[in-house]
Amino acid sequence: QVQLVESGGGLVQPGGSLRLSCAASGNIFSLYVMAWYRQAPGKQRELVATITPGGSTNYADAVQGRFTISRDNARKTMYMQMNSLKPDDTAVYYCKARRPIISGPDYWGQGTQVTVSS
Q: Average pLDDT by consecutive 10-residue portion of the chain (118 residues)?
């Protein structure tokens, strides 16, 4: 019922910046809790940041102060501004959507590659 498409990944030098976008289909984007996850080769997928329908945010310790998650409900798009990027940030970044209801399903995008390398 919900389709998510990430974009904005690429190659950047350490200390550089990127902005990721996640465009959503459907008619109830504003009701979903949204999140960014990332997964590096050989590692488990990890939660990076979340944002509620009302705009409350939470961040993983590893990105606190460097990444900023946001959403534009009118455009049905979630963003993540990534500054001061480090090689350890290299991963495929995925967006996720979930309605905050009992037994609500998770919806995932296909991911966008972020590579931080000099």
A: 94 98 92 97 96 96 98 96 98 95 91 97
Q: Quick count: other Cβ atoms within 10 Å of Cβ 110?
A: 11
Please give the torsion angle defined by the CA atoms of residues 61, 67, 73 and 74, in that order, rounded to the nearest 10 degrees.
180
Tell me how far apart the alpha carbons of residues 14 and 109 are, in angstroms, rounded to a whole number: 26
Classify strands 57-59 and 10-12 as parallel, antiparallel or unpaired: unpaired
* DSSP codes of every residue in 91-113: EEEEEEEE-SSTTPPEEE---EE
Nearest of 15, 21, 17, 46 to residue 112 by alpha carbon? 21
